[in-house]
Specification:
The protein has helices spanning about 5-15, 15-30, 35-45, 45-155, 160-170, 180-245, 255-270, 280-285, 285-300, 300-320, 330-355, 360-385, 390-410, 415-445, 455-465, 470-475, 485-505, 515-540, 545-575, 590-615, 635-650, 660-690, 695-715, 730-745, 745-750, 765-780, 785-790, 795-815, and strands spanning about 450-455, 480. The chain is mainly α. The protein has a two-stranded antiparallel ribbon. This is Exocyst complex component 6 isoform X1.
């Protein structure tokens, strides 16, 4: 219950007691007075007045008690005052003494205060110094590390600087992060990192530029090492071939002698070049790459660095793969091109193996495939301009070394060896062109006469160059002559040289002996069937080549044909591939030289016919003469004398063997028959020439005298070997035609026409009609047949009748045809 509630309750019970209680409460100061007073005023209407009365009464009681107490203590108060007054004087003295003591004490304490203040100040300074030392001890490592960072930056030790930055950020800066200098340092670190990236990237650019300039030196060193390794391997292989008895005869030297020489030269060269083997690290400082890669790895930007490096290297690859326009002119141009490419990929291979992720195998394979396609296209284009086989061969050797070098670094090079087969075809073409010139020079220098042999030494020299065997010739005493001319052994030697040259390209192509044998035989076949054959045909068709030279060419081709089997043996000795092997290609020399002989024979016949035509063109007949001269024409006698001399040359050619005799006789017989046939045809065409309009009987008789000389020539056997009157049959057409007109035996001709046993079987009606019409026109103008008209006019009618009958025969032949 609250105090107000209690007061109200007390006023209801006993008002006087209640007011007493209220006053007691007020005096006690224990209860809140507000509630007590409120209970006095709120409970009864007259409570305030009564309370005031009670309060006044209480106050009077207290005043009485105070008065009583004061009266009770008054004397003591008076005594105390009296005592106090007595003490006052002493108090004043004491005050003076205290004041003086205090003054003296204060004066004495001033120095102490000063010293105390000094002590306090020193203590404060000492505390501050201790604090500073503690803070400096905390900051000094940071400053030392930052100073170390600056030194590393100055010394371009950027990777160490980045590591120092990491330590500063992770270990040292958190300890002093409240200081302003630390904030400045923290703010400066990103800039330092960017500076490091820029400087390292600049170093990388310098490195890329440096390796671009030094790629050729790197590639040259790598290719040189690969070549030395290959020479050493080939030398060991050849030594093993000698050990296991593989006989390869080249340049008439035995395997033991040749391989000993090869080994000697190889080891001498190895001793001369015995020096410290340089590696790519010795030629190039890769530290900028490593440093830049580590820096970007630490900075967490490794991918950016990888992309930039690969992009720049691809650009450099395109520059390296771009050849100079005149690269095909010299081998140095190709060598510089290859060394730069090898240097580029040697660097990439080194980067692949010493770094993690900067260059991957997939990336290098992609880059190599791109480069390989470009290289093949460039080599295919530039090699097509090469016309010198020596340059093509050096190019092939460079490509092989180039391929072997890169293969040693793990790059696939099969496509390069496939390209070499294309270049090999081109090499063969350049060889064929070169040997075409060689053959032409040999033919130009040849005198087309049998080789004279004075003594045994000369004979042995010829036999050592050309495989000639003739037992009959060997039995003859010196001096003697070989049937062939000087060009034959020269041609044989040059064919062997061609095989050597072709073999040079086939070496180091990683092909089997069977494939090399096939390539050698095919290229030799091309030399024989295309180059040599073409040179022979061109030689045969040259205007200055006479009939004697053509006969000698025929003899030469015979010996070259016989030498083809020795060429096959020569190739077999080189490749160790037997000719009995199923897939072995045969040489086509037989057909080549046979074709050349046929062409030479044909040229002999053609030249003879041309010479006959030249003599026939000198003919100057008077086709209107009334009487013959009584002797043969001069041009014809000259022609016959020429033919006799020519055929005497044919028959007096050296025939050291039955084959040569048979060949010479056959050519002479064929030439003689061809000449007689051509002469007969030319004389027939002279009679039937459309421009010749008139022919007299005297001209026919003169013409008959010339034909008689031709028949006498044919019957005189200008060339031995003809049976019976075979050669005379060449003039049978002329003879029957002239006999018909000379005898004027038209009745027999017309009666027997078409009969196998006809006397004038070889006379064509059209030919007889043409000649008869020419004589008919002459009779009208020159009165040749006047005697017939005088003696018997019926003969004129007979001529008319014969002409009509001949025309009917000609028309019948046309209708039948």
């Amino acid at each position: 219950m609250s105090a107000a509630g209690k007061s109200g309750a007390m006023l209801e019970e006993d008002p006087d007691q209640t007011y007493e209680n209220v006053l007691a409460e007020i005096q006690s100061f224990e209860l809140p007075i507000e509630a007590t007073l409120r209970s006095v005023y709120d409970d009864q209407p007259n409570a305030h007045k009564k309370f005031m009365e009670k309060l006044d009464a209480c106050i009077r009681n207290h005043d009485k008690e105070i008065e009583k107490m004061c009266n009770f203590h008054h004397q003591g108060f008076v005594d105390a005052i009296t005592e106090l007054l007595k003490v006052r004087t002493d108090a004043e003295k004491l005050k003076v003494q205290v004041t003086d003591t205090n003054r003296r004490f204060q004066d004495a304490g001033k120095e102490v205060i000063v010293q105390t203040e000094d002590i306090i100040r020193c203590r404060i300074q000492q505390r501050n110094i201790t604090t500073v030392v503690e803070k400096l001890q905390l900051c000094l490592p940071v400053l030392e590390m930052y100073s170390k960072l600056k030194e590393q930056m100055s010394a371009k030790r950027y990777y160490s600087a980045l590591k120092t930055m990491e330590q500063l950020e992770n270990v040292y800066f958190p300890r002093v992060s409240q200081y302003r200098f630390c904030q400045l340092m923290i703010e400066n670190l990103p800039k330092l990192r960017e500076d490091i990236k820029e400087v390292s990237m600049s170093d990388l650019k310098d490195f890329l530029e440096s390796i671009r300039k030094h790629s050729d030196k790197i590639g040259e060193t790598a290719m040189k090492q690969a070549q030395q390794q290959k020479i050493f391997s080939v030398t060991l292989q050849k030594r093993n071939n000698v050990k296991f008895g593989k006989n390869i005869y080249i340049n008439n030297r035995s395997p033991d002698e040749r391989n000993k020489t090869v080994l000697k030269h190889a080891f001498e060269e190895e001793d001369e070049n015995e020096e410290e083997v340089l590696t790519v690290q010795d030629l190039v400082d890769f530290s900028p790459v490593y440093r830049c890669l580590h820096i970007y790895s630490v900075l967490g930007d490794e991918e950016t660095f990888e992309n930039y490096y690969r992009k720049q290297r691809k650009k450099q690859a395109r520059l390296v793969l771009q050849p100079q326009s005149n690269m095909h002119e010299t081998v140095d141009g190709y060598r510089r091109y290859f060394t730069q490419i090898v240097g580029f990929f040697v660097v990439e291979d080194h980067i692949l193996h010493v770094t993690q992720g900067l260059v991957t195998r997939a990336y290098t394979d992609e880059l190599w495939n791109m480069a390989l396609s470009k290289i093949i296209a460039v080599l295919r284009a530039h090699s097509s301009y090469c016309t010198d086989p020596d340059l093509v061969l050096e190019l092939k050797n460079l490509i092989v070394i180039f391929a072997d070098t890169l293969q040693g670094y793990g790059f696939p090079v099969n496509r390069l060896f496939d390209l070499l087969f294309e270049i090999r075809d081109q090499y063969n073409e350049t060889l064929l062109k070169k040997w075409a010139g060689v053959f032409r020079d040999i033919f130009e220098e040849d005198n087309y006469s049998p080789i004279p042999i004075v003594n045994e030494e000369e004979y042995k020299v010829i036999i050592s160059k050309f495989p000639f065997q003739d037992s009959d010739l060997e039995k003859q005493s010196f001096p003697k002559k070989l049937p062939m001319s000087q060009s034959v052994p020269h041609i044989y030697i040059q064919v062997k040289e061609f095989i050597y040259a072709s073999l040079k390209f086939s070496e180091s192509l990683h092909r089997s002996s069977t494939e090399i044998d096939d390539m050698l035989r095919k290229s030799t076949n091309l030399l024989l069937t295309r180059t040599l054959s073409s040179c022979l045909l061109n030689l045969i068709r040259k205007p200055h080549i006479g009939l004697t030279e053509l006969v000698q060419i025929i003899i030469n081709t015979t010996h070259l044909e016989q030498a083809c089997k020795y060429l096959e043996d020569f190739i077999t000795n080189i490749t160790n591939i037997s000719q009995e092997t199923v897939h072995t290609t045969r040489l086509y020399g037989l057909s080549t030289f046979k074709d050349a002989r046929h062409a030479a024979e044909g040229e002999i016949y053609t030249k003879l016919n041309q010479k006959i035509d030249e003599f026939v063109q000198l003919a100057d007949y008077d086709w209107t003469m009334s009487e013959p001269d009584g002797k043969a024409s001069g041009y014809l006698m000259d022609l016959i004398n020429f033919l006799r001399s020519i055929f005497q040359v044919f028959t007096h050619l050296p025939t050291n063997s039955n084959d040569h005799a048979a060949m010479s006789g056959k050519v002479a017989q064929t030439a003689c028959m061809s000449a007689c046939q051509h002469l007969s045809t030319s004389l027939m065409q002279m009679l039937l020439d459309s421009e010749l309009k008139q022919i007299s009987m005297g001209a026919v008789q003169q013409f008959n005298l010339d034909v008689i000389q031709c028949e006498l020539f044919a019957s005189s056997e200008p060339v031995p070997g003809f049976q019976g009157d075979t050669l005379q049959l060449a003039f049978i057409d002329l003879r029957q035609l002239l006999d018909l007109f000379m005898v004027w035996d038209w009745s027999t001709y017309l009666a027997d026409y078409g009969q196998p046993a006809s006397k004038y079987l070889r006379v064509n009606p059209n030919t007889a009609l043409t000649l008869l019409e020419k004589m008919k026109d002459t009779s009208k103008k020159n009165n040749i047949f006047a005697q017939f008209r005088k003696n018997d006019r019926d003969k004129q009618k007979l001529i008319e009748t014969v002409v009509k009958q001949l025309r009917s025969l000609v028309n019948g032949m046309s209708q039948h045809t």
